[in-house]
């Protein structure tokens, strides 16, 4: 192993680093544009037995790089022959392919993010897709939109709400009224709470609908965008309707 590392480093300076105590060699792939590194474990019987891929850095886990590179070793390794240089040569095409695939996925992700920002969604929310969304209810300039999502713990409720409020469109709402109910696992004990967010009685109204429908493990948010005209008690009618529609859209209650 030490002789091979010395030879490899004479060809590709600083490419290989050996760890004799763990029988591993870290290879900084000279053909990689992203600085991919592969760690190989060498059995005591090497070169009679093939090395194993321990780790591949800088590539997405979804690419399953360790498995792909190990398959190359299994198909190209010849017992009794040193293999480090052959390995670098054999994996060049596959590494380039995985890097190109990852870059394409990143470009698509960045484009999708720009599109979401252009339409007022996705400023910072990572979980916006988990929420069901209602149609808008408009009344004298005010707009009401309901959202519902499954949540299995109070900590998950907190995470989902904090994340949702990072969304650009949600953040613009004048009132983000919310309520949630979570089964504690103890018979007869339900964790539940609400937030009026400046619209007195609104959060309790949402929670009351959830209680009547016996909804558990869920969180509901109704956003109101104020249009400058006070609509009186009618606002609670719209909040209730947005709550029901959100729960129905999320499959949490049946029509």
From TrEMBL:
<feature type="domain" description="RWD">
    <location>
        <begin position="2"/>
        <end position="91"/>
    </location>
</feature>
<dbReference type="Pfam" id="PF01205">
    <property type="entry name" value="Impact_N"/>
</dbReference>
<dbReference type="GO" id="GO:0140469">
    <property type="term" value="P:GCN2-mediated signaling"/>
</dbReference>
<dbReference type="InterPro" id="IPR020568">
    <property type="entry name" value="Ribosomal_Su5_D2-typ_SF"/>
</dbReference>
<dbReference type="GO" id="GO:0005737">
    <property type="term" value="C:cytoplasm"/>
</dbReference>
<dbReference type="Pfam" id="PF05773">
    <property type="entry name" value="RWD"/>
</dbReference>
<keyword id="KW-0678">Repressor</keyword>
<dbReference type="InterPro" id="IPR001498">
    <property type="entry name" value="Impact_N"/>
</dbReference>
<comment type="similarity">
    <text>Belongs to the IMPACT family.</text>
</comment>
<feature type="domain" description="Impact N-terminal">
    <location>
        <begin position="140"/>
        <end position="247"/>
    </location>
</feature>
<dbReference type="InterPro" id="IPR023582">
    <property type="entry name" value="Impact"/>
</dbReference>
<protein>
    <submittedName>
        <fullName>Yih1 protein</fullName>
    </submittedName>
</protein>
<dbReference type="InterPro" id="IPR006575">
    <property type="entry name" value="RWD_dom"/>
</dbReference>
<dbReference type="InterPro" id="IPR036956">
    <property type="entry name" value="Impact_N_sf"/>
</dbReference>
<keyword id="KW-0346">Stress response</keyword>
<keyword id="KW-0810">Translation regulation</keyword>
<keyword id="KW-0963">Cytoplasm</keyword>
<dbReference type="InterPro" id="IPR020569">
    <property type="entry name" value="UPF0029_Impact_CS"/>
</dbReference>
<dbReference type="InterPro" id="IPR016135">
    <property type="entry name" value="UBQ-conjugating_enzyme/RWD"/>
</dbReference>
<dbReference type="GO" id="GO:0006446">
    <property type="term" value="P:regulation of translational initiation"/>
</dbReference>
């Amino acid at each position: 192993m030490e002789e091979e590392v010395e030879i490899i480093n004479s060809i590709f300076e600083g490419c290989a680093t050996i760890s004799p105590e763990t029988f591993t060699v870290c290879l900084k792939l000279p053909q990689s544009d992203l600085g991919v590194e592969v760690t190989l474990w060498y059995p005591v019987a090497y070169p009679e037995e093939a090395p194993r891929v321990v780790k591949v850095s800088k590539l997405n886990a979804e690419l399953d790089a360790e498995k792909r590179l190990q398959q190359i070793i299994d198909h190209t390794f010849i017992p009794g022959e040193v293999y480090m240089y052959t390995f670098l040569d054999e994996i060049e095409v596959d590494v380039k392919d995985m890097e190109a695939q990852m870059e394409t996925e990143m470009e698509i992700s960045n484009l999708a993010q720009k599109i979401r920002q252009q339409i007022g969604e996705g400023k910072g929310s990572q979980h916006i897709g988990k929420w069901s969304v209602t149609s808008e209810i408009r009344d004298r300039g005010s707009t009401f939109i309901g959202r519902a999502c499954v949540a299995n713990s109070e900590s998950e409720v907190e995470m989902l709400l904090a994340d949702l409020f990072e969304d650009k469109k949600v953040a613009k709402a004048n009132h983000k009224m919310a309520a949630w109910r979570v089964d504690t696992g103890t018979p007869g004990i339900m964790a539940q709470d609400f937030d009026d967010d400046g619209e007195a009685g609104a959060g309790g109204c949402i929670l009351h609908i959830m209680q009547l429908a016996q909804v558990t493990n869920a969180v509901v948010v109704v956003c109101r965008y104020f249009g400058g005209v006070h609509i009186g008690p009618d606002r609670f009618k719209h909040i209730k309707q947005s709550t029901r529609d959100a729960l129905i859209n999320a499959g949490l209650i049946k029509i």
